[in-house]
Design a protein that fits this description.
Layout (H helix, E strand, L loop, with lengths): L1 E6 L4 H12 L4 E8 L3 H11 L6 E3 L1 H10 L4 E4 L7 H9 L3 E4 L2 H7 L1 H6 L5 E3 L2 H10 L7 E8 L9 H4 L4 H4 L9 H9 L1 H14 L6 E5 L5 E7 L4 E5 L5 H9 L22 E2 L7 H11 L3 H17 L7 H11 L9 H22 L1
Parallel strand pairs: 1-2, 1-4, 2-3, 4-5, 5-6, 7-8
Antiparallel strand pairs: 7-9, 8-11, 9-10
Length: about 375
């Protein structure tokens, strides 16, 4: 039985992780919970899973202490945003397996995170990166030619930039496939989420950016693919359901039976793939630029985007201005000193202030 700490327990990833635990009490024991602000639901979860009240905590700082002070094998980091960086680093330094859904902590931390991790210590929970990890088992690292991330294309697939000018917050939150929080859903609409995942794939699997592609797959059944040097491609396929990668993140490398439904091969289905229009959706192109630059550029990309998303939902800027604003902030950034936790936090602070200043002038 694996002892599990779940960070972000009241969010989408956290609640689904607890559903997996509830259905597999013989395999997992929840020994710690952390949430952002929903104290009532957190208390209910603690009571349901027998977690002492001292190990059911609120806030990122408390989550970090929980990880440092609690004996466990696995930490599921389902926190949203870069505030998950400190808990991520605490998980790695204490030797626990990190089931990582909080992609932002890896992206803004970069080599701080990968250098702190032992081989195999980080298990991705994002469906795309879980798919890549599974496909990579099919060959040696020297045989890998390319990683191929799939993207649903979001609610505005096929739209022109002119059409995007009129997008409302309600439209941006109407994702065709996944049910997620406000920031992640908006990021999926702008394709910023895919840009973040591009950087995440580079850091997780140590594959150069020029060997990571993105293809649009609206059905979201093929979660990602790996192309090998002999021309073969391995794909991980399943109906859209986050419980599969969450469960695998907690049990890796073992699989748990009947976590999620499989594809029904008795029914006809059509899966399509198309190139990403980077002229309309520039977030992935910008993420490549940011990822290759490294240092604190990814932290600036992420922080500026978070400010822009909030401004969009507050009616201060338009939808297309989100990525435009991020690019403007990124292009004005000048990294200071070596990469460290302090330099990352300072870069984020600067990026938020810079983004807010640009937003203020736009209002």
């Amino acid at each position: 039985m694996r002892r599990v700490i779940i960070l972000g327990s009241t969010g989408s990833i956290g609640t689904q992780a607890l559903e997996v635990v509830s259905a597999n009490r013989d395999k997992f024991e929840v020994v710690g919970l952390a949430a952002g602000a929903n104290a009532e639901l957190l208390a209910q979860q603690a009571a349901q899973f027998g977690v002492p009240t001292t190990r059911a905590v609120l806030g990122a700082a408390a989550a970090t202490r929980l990880v440092e002070e609690t004996d466990a094998e696995v930490v599921v980091n389902g926190i949203t945003g870069s505030i998950g960086l400190a808990p991520t680093l605490a998980t790695l330094t204490t030797g626990k397996t990190l089931a990582l859904a909080n992609k932002e902590s890896l992206i803004v931390g970069g080599r701080l995170v990968t250098d702190a991790a032992a081989p195999g210590q980080i298990v991705p929970v994002d469906s795309e990166h879980s798919a890549l990890a599974q496909c990579l088992l099919g060959g040696a690292k020297t045989e890998v030619r390319k990683l191929i991330l799939t993207a649903s294309g979001g609610p505005f697939r096929g739209w022109t930039r002119e059409q995007l000018q009129e997008v409302t917050p309600a439209q941006a939150l109407a994702h065709p496939t996944w049910v997620m929080g406000k920031v992640v859903t908006t990021n999926s609409a702008t394709l910023v989420n895919k840009g973040l995942e591009l950087i995440e794939a580079h850091l997780l699997f140590d594959v150069p950016f020029d060997r990571i592609d993105v293809t649009v797959h609206p059905q979201s059944v093929v979660h990602s693919m790996v192309e090998f040097i002999d021309g073969s491609v391995l794909a991980q396929c399943s109906p859209p359901n986050m419980k599969l990668p969450i469960a695998l993140g907690m049990s890796w490398p073992e699989r748990i039976a009947d976590v999620a439904p499989a594809c029904d091969w008795t029914k006809a289905a059509t899966w399509t793939f198309e190139p990403l229009n980077e002229q309309v959706f520039g977030a992935v192109r910008l993420a490549r630029q940011v990822g290759e630059a490294g240092r604190t550029f990814p932290a600036v990309y992420n922080a500026a985007n978070e400010q822009a998303v909030e401004a969009f939902h507050a009616g201060k800027i338009g939808f297309v201005s989100i990525v435009d604003l991020v690019e403007r902030v990124v292009n004005s950034h000048e990294p200071q000193g070596d990469l460290s936790l302090e330099s990352v936090l300072e870069a984020e602070r600067w990026a938020r202030e810079r983004a807010d200043a640009v937003i203020a002038r736009a209002c």
